[in-house]
Amino acid sequence: MLDTSVNPHIAGAHALTRRERVVLAELTEDVTLEEIATRLFVTRNTVKSQVRSVYRKIGVSTRAEAVAWAEAHGIR
């Protein structure tokens, strides 16, 4: 039987939506969530939700870990 579950360490950036990749790239810059929200024309709460989703999918729990993951996977 084919395993359809997503393992973020294997699937990498492909597990992320286009918007999640954009948010992750924004996290690599020294900006606040409010500034990211303004740049993306969404609310801060939307960005917070997207960040939580990114963290879950890539298996990290801090911004520093997410930035390191993004750099290791060529997302900037």
From TrEMBL:
<protein>
    <recommendedName>
        <fullName>HTH luxR-type domain-containing protein</fullName>
    </recommendedName>
</protein>
<dbReference type="Pfam" id="PF00196">
    <property type="entry name" value="GerE"/>
</dbReference>
<dbReference type="InterPro" id="IPR016032">
    <property type="entry name" value="Sig_transdc_resp-reg_C-effctor"/>
</dbReference>
<keyword id="KW-0238">DNA-binding</keyword>
<dbReference type="InterPro" id="IPR000792">
    <property type="entry name" value="Tscrpt_reg_LuxR_C"/>
</dbReference>
<keyword id="KW-0805">Transcription regulation</keyword>
<feature type="domain" description="HTH luxR-type">
    <location>
        <begin position="9"/>
        <end position="74"/>
    </location>
</feature>
<dbReference type="InterPro" id="IPR036388">
    <property type="entry name" value="WH-like_DNA-bd_sf"/>
</dbReference>
<keyword id="KW-0804">Transcription</keyword>
